[in-house]
Amino acid sequence: MSKTKIAFVTGSRADYGIMRHYLGKLKEDASIDLELLVTGALLDSRFGKQVSLIENDGFPIGVEISLPINPSSNAGVLHTMAVALDKFGEYFQNHCYNLLLVLGDRYEILPVALAAAMQRIPILHIHGGEATFANYDEFIRHAITKMSWFHFTATEIYRKRVIQLGEAPERVFNLGALGAENCLEINDALVPETVKKMPSKQYFVVLFHPETLTERNPVEQVNQILLAVKKHPEFEYVFLGSNADTHGDEIRQAIKSFVSANDNAKYFENLPTDGYHALLKNSICLLGNSSSGIIEAPSLGIYTINVGDRQKGRVRGNSVIDVTCDTASILSAMDQLTIKPEVNPLENPYYQPNTVERYYRKTKDIIKLTQEGITKFPKAFFDINFKI
Predict the structure, then answer these.
(1) pLDDT of the residue at 189
(2) Which of 106, 113, 198, 243 gives 20 to 30 Å between its CA and that of 145?
(3) 71 pLDDT above the threshold of 60
C-alpha cells in the first residue's frame, strides 16, 4: 500500500512550535509521507528566518515559498495574501496530498487553505472555533473552518462553535491544545545559554502584538506597557519580537529603542520553542497579549497579565489577569503579582492528558477515510459516512 501523503503548512515560529511534537509522531509512522510547506515570516530575515528550526529538527521540507511581507498597512497584508494565493494555487495544481494540516488563523495561511480547498485537497483544521474579537484572526479562523473537512478543537466550547458554523459534529473533535501539553516537556539541550542565565523569578517576559480590528494606535499601546515597566526598574524584562500583523513593525521598533536605552531589558527576535517555554517557566509572569499566555503559561504555573482586547473572546483560566491597556492598570497587576502574589492552584481549560498521542490516533482514523481511493476530492467523497 502506498504511503499517505500529509503536508503541514507553516508560516511562523509560533505555529511550528505548537505542532512540532505532533508532527514528530506523524514522521515516525512508516505509513505516512510527511512534508512541511514553509512560508511567511519563517523565510524572512526581519523575523529571524527561523526555517533552520525545522531543518535542525529533521523534518522534510516539501517547498519553501517566500512572500513579500509588508505589515505597514492592511493593503500590504492583502498583497502578501494575494501573492500567497497565486503561488500556492500553482503549487497545489502540481502537488497533491491526502491531507493538509492547517493551524489557526494567520492571514498568510488563509490563501493557502483556499488554494488547497479549490484543488480539492482535504484539510484538517486545528484550533478552530476560537474567538478573538479585536483581530482579523477572528474571521480568518472561521473562514478556514468552512474550507476544512476535519477539525481538532482545544475546548468543548470551541467544538460547539465549529458545529454552529455548520460543520458535521462527527468530524469535529475536542482534543485539547497541543501547546498546553508541549510546554511540559522542555529539552534543556535546546535552551539557549542566555535564557539559562536569566535569574529565576526576577524578570517579566513581555510579548505584545497589534490589535488589528480596533482603533487603538499600536505604538501608543506599547508605550503604556513601557511606562509601566519603567516604574519597576528593580526587575529585568525580556522582550520578544512582535508578529507580522499590520503595524507589528512599529511595535518592534518601539521595543528595540526601549531595550537599547535600558540595561535591565533584553530583546529576542525569536527563540526556539524549548527556549521560550524555559524562559516563561522561570519568569514572574507573561506581560502582553500573546495567546501563549492563555494556553501555555498556566500549564507552567505562570500567571499572565493580559493587556487590551487582542485575546478578548478566548476561554481562559484563573491564571489570566485581564487589564486595559493603560499604565495604571498594568502597574496594578504587576504589583498584585510581585507584592502579594496569588498562591491558588492554576487551572488550564486547554489541557487534556496525552494530547499529542490523541491527535496522532485521531489523524490515523481520518487517514482511513482518505484511503477510500481518494487522491483529490471526487464527488463521491461528499457521500462518505464520516463516523470516526
Answers:
(1) 96
(2) 243
(3) yes
Beta bridge partners of 98: none
Phi, psi of 48 (to 5 degrees): 90, -5
Within 10 A of 203 (CB to CB), how many other CB atoms are there?
Answer: 20
**How far is residue 246's CA from residue 243's CA, in Å, rounded to a whole number?**
9
> CB of 68 within 8 A of CB of 38?
no
Predicted model pTM: 0.94
CA pair distance 56, 365, nearest whole angstrom? 30
User: Do 136 and 161 form a contact (C-beta atoms < 8 A)?
Assistant: no
Distance CA(237)–CA(334), nearest Å, equals 12
pLDDT at 379: 40
Number of H helices, E strands in the chain: 14, 13
* CA dihedral over 136, 52, 6, 292, signed as positive or negative: negative
Using alpha carbons, list the distances in angstroms from residue 46 to 42, 53, 66, 226: 10, 16, 13, 22
Measured from the Cβ of residue 190, the count of other Cβ atoms closer than 10 Å reads 16
* CB 284 within 8 Å of CB 235: yes
Q: Helix (H, G, I), strand (E, B), or coil: what is residue 34?
A: strand
At 1 the pLDDT is 64
Amino acid at 245: D
Q: pLDDT, tens digit, for every residue of 285-297? A: 999 999 999 999 9
pLDDT score at 49: 86
Q: What is the CA radius of gyration of the chain?
A: 21
Here the cell at position 250 is: 512599529
Rounded to the nearest 5°, which phi and psi values hold at 212? -95, -5
Q: Are strands 285-288 and 265-268 parallel, antiparallel or unpaired?
A: unpaired
Residue 66: pLDDT over 50: yes
